Every structure is written in C-alpha cells, then in structure tokens.
Amino acid sequence: MASRLAKRLGGLVIVMFIVAAIVFFLTRLAPGDPAALMLGDQATADDIARLRTTYGLDRPLFIQFGLWLAEVVKGNLGHSIFLQRPVTQALLERAEPTFFLALFALAFATLIGIPCGIASAVWRGRLVDQILSAIAMLSASIPSFWLGLLFIQFFAVRLGWLPVAGYGDPGAPLAERLAHLILPATVLGIVNSALIVRFTRASMLDVLGEDFIRTARAKGISERRVVLRHAFGNALVPIVTVVGLTGALLIGGAIVTETVFGLPGIGNLIVSSVLRRDYPVIQGALIVVAGIYVIINIAVDLIYALVDPRVRT
Amino acid sequence: MLGFGLFLRRLFRRRIVLIGALILLVLIVVALAAPWISPFDPNAVRVARRLRPPSAVNWFGTDEYGRDVLSRIIYGSRASLGIGASVVMMSVACGTLLGILAGYFRRLDGPIMRVIDAFMALPDILLAIFLVAVLGASATNVVLALAIVYTPRVARVVRASTLVVRELPFVEAARALGVSTWRIMSVHVLLNVTSPVLVQATFIFAYAVLAEAGLSFLGAGVPQEVPTWGTMIAASQSFSDQAIWLVVFPGLAIVLAALSLQLVGDGLRDMLDPKLRKSL
Amino acid sequence: MTDTSPLLDIADLKVAFDTETGTVTPILGVNLKVHAGETVALVGESGSGKSVTSLAVMGLLPRPAGRVAEGRILFRRRSGDSVDLATLPREAMQQLRGGEIAMIFQEPMTSLNPVLSVGEQIAEAVRQHMKLDRRAAQKRAIEMLELVEIPAAASRALEYPHEMSGGMRQRVMIALAMSCNPSLLIADEPTTALDVTVQAQILALIDRLRHDTGMGVLFITHNLGVVAEVADRVTVMYAGQVVEAGPVRALFRGARHPYTRGLMDCLPARAHRGADGRRVVKAIPGTVASALAIHDGCRFGPRCEHAADACRAAPPGLEFAEPEHLTRCIRWRSL
C-alpha cells in the first residue's frame, strides 16, 4: 500500500510539473509583451525595459520558467497587476463561495446519482431503468448556464423564492450567503449527476453478475441486503472514483455557474482575468485547480484501501 | 465486417437510439439547407418588430433588433454543428495518432501519457477558456482550443485498444511474418480501434457543442457577431426578464443536438462493446 | 435408505426462459428424488440442464427471464410439512434458502464476497436463519470453520477470501452451507475447479457431514468417477431430460440407456484394448443438441448408434427396467 501510494505520488508530481510547463509556455504564446501588459497603456518604453529586467523577462525562456517554478513551489503564484495584490491572496478571498458551491453540488449529484444508478441496475431493462437512463442522458445534454438562466427566471424572478444572484453582503451571516448557493448548486449538481448515475449503474451491473451474489442469494438473505451490502459494497471502488472525478470536474463547471449567478468565486475571478488578460491570476488558478485534481486523486486512492481489503495488503 | 443493414438494425434495436438518430439527421439537414428553409434573413434588422413573443409569423419570436429567432437558430446550427464537427475531426486525428504511438511503442508510452494526464488534470472548460485567452477569441481558435481539450480523451481510448490489439495473435503473427511495423499499425490496429473511436467521437461532438456554447456565453468564445446557439443566448441574456424566448429556444437547440448525439453514442457503445452487449 | 417420504421430490419439471428470440425450455421432463441421509448424483454433460435444475430448486432462476413452467418440486420441511418450491411465495422461499436447503458452487475463487471477511459471510447466514445476535453468530461461524477442518479457525475467520487457497475457500463455502443445519445440500460441481488431492479431501468432508447430520445431498457433477465414490443413487440427464436413474451399483453394472453407456465408456478406467493392444477411450460422437432445436423422437437419437425408426417416431417416456431403475429408452431390452 505504502509503496503503491509513493509510486502514485511520484507520478502526480510529474503531472504537476507538466501542468506548470504547459501553463507557463502557453501563456508566453499569447500576443503582446507581458511587461507592457502588466504596466498598462500609459507605460513608457523605459518603464517597460526596467520591468523586464526586474522580472527577468529579458533572460532565456527556460531560465524564466525555472525562476517562476521555484516561486510556485514556494507557494508564490505571482502578483496581479489589476487587483494590486498577490495571486494567492486573490484566490483565497474568492475561495469560500466556490468551495461551498462545489461541495453542495457534489453532495446533490451523489445523493441523486447513486440511488438512481442502483435502481437502474437492479431493474435493468425495465421501465424504471429506461426512464432514469433517459433523464441522466438529458441532464448531461443541458448547458449549465442555460439551465441557470431558466432557474433564475422561474424560481427567483417569477416565484421570488430564492435570491436572484450574488452572494449577499460581505457581512451577511453564513446562512444568508449559503441561501444564495441553493440554485447554483442545484444546477451544477443536476448537470454533473449523469456521470455518477451511469457509472453506478454499470458497476452495479458488473457486480450483480458475479458468482458471490448468487452465493449471497443462496444464503436466503433479503434481496435488499444482497443489493446494498454485497453488490454495492463491491461496486464502491469505481463509484468512489467517479465521485472524486466529478468533484474535480465541478471546479470547471463552477466557472460557468458562478458567472451566471454572479457569485464572487474563483470561477468568476478566472473569467474576469481572462477578459482583462490578467495572466498571473489565470496561471495561478490553473496550477491550483490541477493541484486540487491531484489531491482528489490521492484521496480516492486512500479511500480504496478503506473500501477494498485486497488493496490494503 | 457486418453489412450496413444489419449494422443499422442492431443500432436501432432500442427505439430511443433511433429517435436520437432521427433528431440528429433533422438537425444536420437543417444546417445544410439553412438558406432554403429559413423563413427570414437571419440578419434583417426590423426595429419596429423588436422583442416580439412567438407568433404565427415569428415562430420563436424576435430579438432586440427585431431579427427572427427561428431563422437565427437555423443559421446558428451551421456554426454550432460546424465547430463541433471540426473539433471532432481534429481531436480524432491527433488523438488516434498519439494513442497509437503511445500504445505501440513502449518507449513513447510514458512521456505521451504523462502529458495527456497533465492535460486531463485541468477541467475541460477551464483549459478551453485558457487556450482561447492565449490564442485570441475567434471561431478558428475555439475549434483549436476544444480540439486540444478533447484530443487526450481519444488518445487514451486508442492507446488502450492498441495495447490490447498489439497482443492479439494475428498481430503477433503478422509481426512474425515480417510485416512492417507501419503496415501492422495502419491496417490491423487502425481497423480495430475504429469502434471505440467512433463511440468517443460521437460523445466529443456532443461535449464540443456544449463547450462552444459555454465559452461563447462566458465571452471567451466565438465573437457575438457570428450567430451560434451559444452567442445568441449570451447576447440576449440581459433581455431574459422581458423576452425569455430569446434564451429558451437556442438553448433547446443545444439540448436537442447534445442529447441526440449522446443517444447515438450510447447506442453505438452498446452495439460495439461486446462486454456490454453480453450483459444486456 | 429411509422408508419415509423423500426429502426432495421433483416431478415432471419444465423450466422455461424467455429470450429475445422466443421461449426456450432448457429443462423438459426432470424427475428426481432425494431421501434424507443419501447422496444422489445428478450427472450429465455441460448444457444438459443439471445446474438449471439445481437453481430451480433453490428458487434462483435468473429473474425475470427464467421460470418453472410445469411440474412440482416437493420439499419436506423440518416441521414435516411438504411444500412445492415451484409455487412457494418469494419470502417463504427465502426462509428455506440457506436455512433448510443450502448450496455450494463450482467456483470457490469467485463465489465468496471479496470485501467481507469469511467469518462475517458465515455469520450473516446464521443471523438470518438462526436469529442469533452478532457475537453468537460470529462464534457459530468459527465453530463451522472448525467443523470443516480449517486450522486456527478463530483467526482465519477474520481473513478475506483473497488470503485463502481454492481448497480453503471451498471449505469456507461448505461451512457457510452447513451453518444453519440444512436438511438438503445441493453441491454443484464442488470439486471441479480444485486440484485432484484437494478434491478427494472435499469429497470426504461432504460425505462425513452427510453421515453426521443425516442430510440429503444432491451432488451435481459431470464426472462419473466421482459418482462412483460418493453417490447412493444416480440420475443421468441429457438435453434437459432425465434419461436414466437408479442405484449407483445397478447403473455401473448394467446401464439401460445408450447415453449412460456412452458416458461410462468414456471413463479411462473402462477403456478397452484395441486390436493393436493399445488402450482406446471411446467417445460419444456429436455434441449435446441445442435445446432450441426441436425434433420429434428421442433427443439422444441423432447421436445414438442403436437408433431405430421407432426412436425417431415419438418421444420416449421413462420406464422401469428394474425396480428403482428408470430409463428413457424404448430399446432398453435389447441393449
């Protein structure tokens, strides 16, 4: 187990390094001089030249990458000219809505997706299965921003049940801020539940065909117990994987959802930074998101060991 | 190789797959025949008729410039489906090449797969928005960005199939007979990865249509002058309080396209994946 | 052999499966009795319907495709009542299954749940049927592991299936089956997947348990060598039908059906010297006819060297060749 984890960690460090390289070098493909971009329109040629020296922008690209990477490893993601503060600080300030949005959406998608997937597998080929599979496929075909706009119109504007957009006043109590997340989290959860339904169904079908399920039935225990304890217990490894994967995907989905609902989260920050070409923020956000993906992967690996005794030894 | 008639009969054994295929066919025909079936000029501005709700004249209503929404959706299908199809072709071409290289040559496997893993560590939309930001917002660059986003998916599937095919007796036999590596790959491996790639391609088409709309909505995609389903929603979202139809109908077009593609993809997967077929 | 009514009495069983292409009947005419304390072997090639018969008895035919279409499966309960397993409601069947009727399967490697310890898996059945609490059930599980001669049972009960060998797992399966004192044990090819040395141990174990508990055993196998060792009586199946049944000695002495004869001739021990002095093992020509192929007359007819016109005219019924010795061959007298 330990050596397996060490190997995984090694692989993930390499992946992170490549992500950093992609982010750094692709950014340099962008049109325009980064120094000029940092200083804005009023900068003189002298200012630009001075900044280029300060930031080492006149040195070879690979050296620049090394210097930048060394800072990133130390936790310094750079400085946003537009926001006038370090990128890490900017990201942290925006972390709360994104964190809760992703958490609620994942909870929603999991709580809906797993039971639907189990039901679909147990009644495979019957009407329940066909309806649930069709709904799952439909939900994966809906653009989240569109669903968000419709939800805002219906639940917030017409019915007035929930806040239209935003995240409440900065000083508002947590409950009020979280109320602003109900609609966006539901939208994000619906759109991302399909993968969980499909995966749960497929892995339950695999397991239900196994010999030990016949043994369990031959014991005379209830079908409910056969499905929930014996089949689901064995389907957990793939299901944990897909829930983890969905968690990572949600970060991408949050970008769109936050924009629709005007939530001041990281996704919103990324979109604004793209529109105003604030590259340090974009780079930093990409590194952080990839890091979260990697951490989720490690967490999923650790959960395997809890779920499956064959992995433990 | 099974005959085309048998292929279709197997594919449409589930009625819902047939429905999906028919919707898809209608959408494609609409896109191709746009100039002939569209009731109005999609760009004809008539301020007197602005923001009209759906009626017998303008079935899907009119937008803030008095343009006919239905006509714009019909023309928009050209851009939306065209971008999707271009993304599919590019990512399938690049992904197949990378996947076969990684799967067939052990020495290339590690490096290629690590880079693919790195690309997959970034959520689709995030990577796409970053690439568009770097490349500049245009229809071509949206295609390029989404093709980069989806190439790793194809490459993974192709690599997995190649690994399996490489060990199959007939490939080993071909190698033993002295058939050149290039020939083995181009004939045997390519033939055998066709099914999984076809399935992936259908799904990528659906994701690409959705992603293009998302990017356009965020303002980091196709410029709003080009009518795609995504830009139509993005352009008129500020009118959604008074004219919800401006949001509803282009969105439905996206849903129909993505759903029909996924239904067909699902049908193909059921039919082509022997493991799944057994369990059905 | 006891003189009370049989423990299990299958009469004219017909099992149907609904498939996409229509209904198939893999079982068409099975008659079989098992008395308490005896071992009845059910013999046949793969595809002959042995396993489907056992699943029908257990009420484990794959749902919703499979069902008992005709016939009855009478089972004498511990209380003395007889119930028809073919029509028993699902809940009542569930109580019998694992309690009064237990089953062990062919594949010990895949028949145990990989994520539960073997002790838990046995205790689960005990709690279900014997209404014991968790601790008492765990204790019973350890006793059962001792019963099947697993050393250090208390610590092995905590192990998971992947930590055990195939023979050990099959012992666990037996412990599981025996845990609620079944009066009928169905053993579906329990030794086929095991090494020869382990096979003999498992056979001896099952036989000892039968002797000690007085349960009836329905032993399903394709291996006539095993039959000779363990069975009191034998029932031979071919293409979904019983073709011959009788005491094991009677069958080995004088089989009354050409198919049984063919099976016996396949035994290496019975190989005879050919003209050149080498031992020749005879094989039955052809393969089991597909259950989908419908034809009149004797089902074994197409592969039978004794087939006559009368055999093709009408399906043969089961008739007594001797007391207790049944055959489904109209020409048994001339064999």
From TrEMBL, chain B:
Membrane-crossing residues? 16-37, 81-105, 125-150, 203-223, 243-265
Any keyword Transmembrane helix? yes
Q: Name one Pfam family in it.
A: OppC_N
PROSITE patterns attached to this UniProt entry:
ABC_TM1
Which CDD domains does this one have?
Answer: TM_PBP2
Cite the ABC transmembrane type-1 domain residue spans from the record: 77-265
UniProt keyword DNA-binding present: no
Compartments annotated for it: namely:
Cell membrane
InterPro entries reported in the protein's UniProt record: BP-dependent_transpt_permease, MetI-like, MetI-like_sf, OppC_N
Name the family the entry cites.
Belongs to the binding-protein-dependent transport system permease family.
- Name under which the protein is recorded: Peptide ABC transporter permease
UniProtKB/TrEMBL annotation, chain C:
- What main location does UniProt list? membrane
UniProt superkingdom: Bacteria
Supply the alphabetized keyword list.
ATP-binding, Cell membrane, Membrane, Nucleotide-binding, Transport
Family matches, as InterPro entries:
AAA+_ATPase, ABC_Ni/Peptide_Import, ABC_transporter-like_ATP-bd, ABC_transporter-like_CS, Oligopep_ABC_C, P-loop_NTPase
Q: Where in the cell is it found?
A: Cell inner membrane
Asked if the record carries the keyword Cell inner membrane, the reply is no
TM segments? none
- Report the membrane topology from the UniProt record: Peripheral membrane protein
Domain named ABC transporter: which ranges? 8-264
Function statement: Involved in beta-(1-->2)glucan export. Transmembrane domains (TMD) form a pore in the inner membrane and the ATP-binding domain (NBD) is responsible for energy generation.
> What family does the database annotate?
Belongs to the ABC transporter superfamily.
Protein name as it appears in the record: Peptide ABC transporter ATP-binding protein-like
Q: Which organism is it from?
A: Bradyrhizobium iriomotense
